[in-house]
Amino acid sequence: MKRLLLMFFICILHASVFAQQAPNENNIESFIRQFLESHNPEEKPKIGENELFSSVVIHRFYGERNFEPAWVKNNILPEIAYEMRYEIGQAKFDGLNPDDYHFQSINAYFDRFEEAKKSGKVLAANELSAVDVLLTDAYIMLSSHLFLGKVNPESLKTTWNIQRNVPELMIDRQLGAAIQSGSLRSTIEGYYPAFSIYKKMRDGLRQLFDEQKRFENEPIAGWKNLKIDKSIKPGETHNQMSEIRDRLYFWGFLKPYQPVDEKSYDSLMMDGIKIIQKRFGMEPDGVIGKGTIQALNQKPIDMISTASVNLERLRWMPDTIKDIELILVNTANFQLDFIQKRDTVLSSKVIVGKSYHSTPQFSALMSYIVFSPTWTVPTSITRNEIVPKIKKDPRYLAKNNMVLLNSSGGKVDPSSIDWGRVSARSFPYTVRQEPGDHNSLGLVKFMFPNKNSVYIHDTPSRNLFEREDRALSHGCIRIQKPFEFAKILLANQPNWTNEKITTAMHQSREQIVNLDRKIPVALIYLTYWADSRGNLYFRNDIYNRDAEIFNALRVARIKKSGI
User: Fold this and answer.
1) How far apart are CA 454 and CA 456, in angstroms?
2) I want to staple 45 with a disulfide (CB 3.0 to 4.6 A). Which of 38, 209, 512, 532 is the partner?
3) What is the largest CA-CA distance in the chain?
């Protein structure tokens, strides 16, 4: 009898030890359900210190599979679990923070799993359940941020009025299919913006992280900001020339060589300067000015920040514009591109708003053209600029082909007004500039009605397009190629020949021409992008918009409603 009792207790003890070392699927399922069910309805479920991002989707995902683990199979972490951990780490190349997706905690669980595996044991059921839920929550978070962006653009100080339709992503079903097929990478890539430039920009950011590692390991990492008092031309000498040369070496814009004079700016060095000037949006004239020095002072970490911000901006863009006609204006690059079926059929320099009259970010539909336009001067410009000029020169209006209009639209004779008693603040008249070569809107304007009262137009000040910094307007966009733009917009209307367009641009009265279709216009702000060859391009943050987005990317994750 004693022997039977002893055998019974040994069996019980063995079963207890085995249960601790080899948890069964039912234990894991039970723990998963407990993790997801918050005891306090006012608090989100937590695993340790990790607050779960998802609520609706993660419950639906596990509920439909009866809380069966997704990543744990037979009490081990299979290859696809390791692949998911790798993808979380790779999120930094999207400008995102892997720690937003439980990266440190997931790594800790994986380390404990590896240690247990080496000693012939398995991880406890509660820990296997925890890592399973964290991997699922990370997938849902990361997918959402890749598709929608982490930062809500409507929460920013700078207005973003480029709207997009957000479909039901069904992330849980996508995850289930990915795990079943083992196609995790392709599924995650499916959440990328539907623009080929995104992957090129992402590859560029990966390259910048590599450059940052090299920067930290090479002596040049201690570089200080360069300063110059005046521009340096080829053939001249400067005390900082050797430091400038070292930075060109670092970026690979110049192959190392032994200069005759360390302080001399020679022709070999000029080739490297031209490359960096082109990459940063300057005229590649080889003259080292303040803009070139500013570009040379950029460290890899600075460029990583800029690249991260612009990848986020691209995630906000509606992908519905990728296969249609699109007029794209990048205000940071001072350029307009007319895109048809993904091909750029026209590029033109543009002038955009000054820093204190910044051109907004929005989308609208171009619907008509106005040839030989009049310009109704905005009230603010009339009060602050026009009235003071009239007081100084009574013939100012006549010289500039301008007329005064009363509230009924009737013309008023300027000589009938006692300008000495006029108050700019309460000036009761409207100023209108008539059509002509010197009209501030030029010979044609292109209209896409919007609440910002912004449009694209010609300008008589053609010389301004030669400037590198073209943030010069009151907010509207001045285009260098107005005739070519009008021609391509009217290409589907054969009666609008070159001669007819030219004539329409030189009339004494306005002529409105409706387009045969409405064309989307997107005014965006990209300070970084990459071309098909992998070259990286940066632009000045002329409106100081990047920092706010970067700071928002770095803070704790922002929960999207309904996920």
Assistant:
1) 7
2) 38
3) 128
Is 528 exposed, middle or buried, given 0-12, 13-18 or 19+ CB atoms closer than 10 A? buried
The one catalytic residue among 11, 102, 438, 457: 457
Distance CA 425, CA 423 (A): 5
Angle at 89 between CA 83 and CA 95, to 5 degrees: 130
Give the phi and the psi of residue 45 in degrees, each rounded to 5. Answer: -60, 145
Q: Residue 141 and residue 98: Cα distance in Å, rounded?
A: 11
* Whole-angstrom distance, CA of residue 139 vs CA of residue 76: 19
Helix H segments across 182-240? 184-189, 196-217
* pLDDT band at 545; cut points 50, 70, 90: very high
Radius of gyration of the chain (CA): 32
Check: CB of residue 137 under 8 Å from CB of residue 48: no
The fold of the 199-302+545-554 domain, in CATH, is Muramoyl-pentapeptide Carboxypeptidase; domain 1 (1.10.101)
**Inter-residue contact 479 to 463 (CB < 8 Å):** no
Q: Pull the structure tokens for residue 100.
A: 């937003």
pLDDT digits (tens, 9 = 90+) for 247-283: 999 999 999 999 999 999 999 999 999 999 999 999 9
Hey, how many other C-beta atoms are within 10 angstroms of the C-beta on 8?
10
Percent over 70 (pLDDT), the chain: 92
- Superfamily name and number for 321-373+445-501+510-526: L,D-transpeptidase catalytic domain-like (2.40.440.10)
Distance CA 115, CA 123 (A): 9
What percent of the chain is predicted at pLDDT more than 90? 77
Q: Give me the phi and psi of 444, to 5 degrees please.
A: -165, 150
515 vs 221, 326, 492, 499, 519, CA distance in Å?
56, 14, 9, 18, 9
CB-count exposure of residue 216 (10 Å: 0-12, 13-18, 19+): exposed
476 catalytically annotated: yes
Determine the 3-state secondary structure of 281 from DSSP. Answer: coil
Going by pLDDT thresholds of 50, 70 and 90, the confidence category of residue 320 is low
Question: What does the DSSP 8-state code read for residue 382?
Answer: I
333: left (phi over 0), alpha (psi -120 to 50) or beta: alpha
Between CA 194 and CA 239 the distance in angstroms is 48
**Which 8-state DSSP code applies to residue 140?**
H
- pLDDT for 560 beyond 50: no
CB-based contact 329:350 (threshold 8 Å) = yes
Q: Is the confidence at residue 511, as pLDDT, over 90?
A: yes
CA distances from 281 to 231, 234, 467 (A): 17, 20, 11
Nearest-angstrom CA–CA distance, 188 and 283:
40
Q: Which of 238, 474, 476, 506 is catalytic?
A: 476
